[in-house]
Design brief:
Length: 238
């Protein structure tokens, strides 16, 4: 079983120590660093192979939600698990496609499920045939050609994947984890819950804030965000 290189970030030392003890029950988890300074994560991402980060949200020097976005910019496939004493951040964390959200005090059962899910995700990255991406759904494992993906749609902790032949699969992890498996420059976020293959975008209506995408022999219209419209030229520049 491959080890999971892990970093723990929390401004409270007691919380770090407690989580370290719980994670000590999993021999596959290698704690590379535990720190009260959130900025420590960036040198580690650049110099070490990091698979998993447990991250607090409310910290005095930086907000964990903001930090996650910066982490994903540096390492899109990195699994980030929020650990917070407050449930009111769950919806915002889901929008950011966090891998999981654990409430303090951390439940052993929820932690077990999270570690198993992370292990499955990491294993899937290593056994994929050339040119394919492995995706686990509830009942099967699918190998997908990235070029055949039309869009990804977030559905809470799951992700709907639509292919050009009209086939749809539901991945058993959130969109952030799914997207981390695919070529970074192939897909663009058109709204909060939808990422589209740029090659399948037919047209963009700035006035109506919509874009038309091709799906096999059909076309469909979806809403787009103001952020997407503002960044069109950058996104599609050659």
């Amino acid at each position: 079983m491959t080890g999971i290189n892990t970093v723990l970030i929390d401004d409270e030392q007691d919380a770090l120590d407690s989580l370290e003890i719980l994670l000590g029950e999993y021999e596959q988890v290698n704690i590379i660093k535990k720190t009260t300074d959130p900025i420590d994560i960036f040198p580690l991402i650049q110099t070490s192979k990091i698979d998993l980060v447990f991250l607090d949200i409310q910290m005095p020097t930086v907000n964990g939600l903001d930090l996650m976005q910066k982490i994903k910019e540096c390492s899109p496939g990195l699994a980030v698990v929020f650990v917070s004493a407050h449930a009111n951040f769950v919806s915002e964390a889901i929008k950011l496609n966090t891998f999981s959200y654990l409430l303090k005090p951390v439940s052993r059962e929820e932690l077990r499920q999270t570690i198993e899910k992370v292990q499955q995700y990491l294993n899937s990255l290593k056994i994929t045939p050339p040119g394919k991406v492995l995706i686990n759904s509830k009942n099967e494992t699918i190998f997908i050609n990235p070029a055949e993906v039309v869009f990804f749609k977030a559905d809470g902790n799951y992700t709907c994947i639509c292919l050009s032949d009209g086939t749809e699969y539901v991945a058993s992890y959130n969109m952030g984890a799914v997207i981390g498996k695919f070529p970074k420059d192939m897909f663009v976020r058109v709204n909060r819950s939808l990422m589209v293959n740029k090659d399948h975008i037919v047209s963009i209506n700035r006035k109506l804030k919509k874009c038309t995408i091709s799906c096999g022999n059909k076309q469909m219209e979806v809403d787009v965000s103001t952020v997407f419209l503002r960044e069109i030229n950058t996104i599609f520049q050659s």
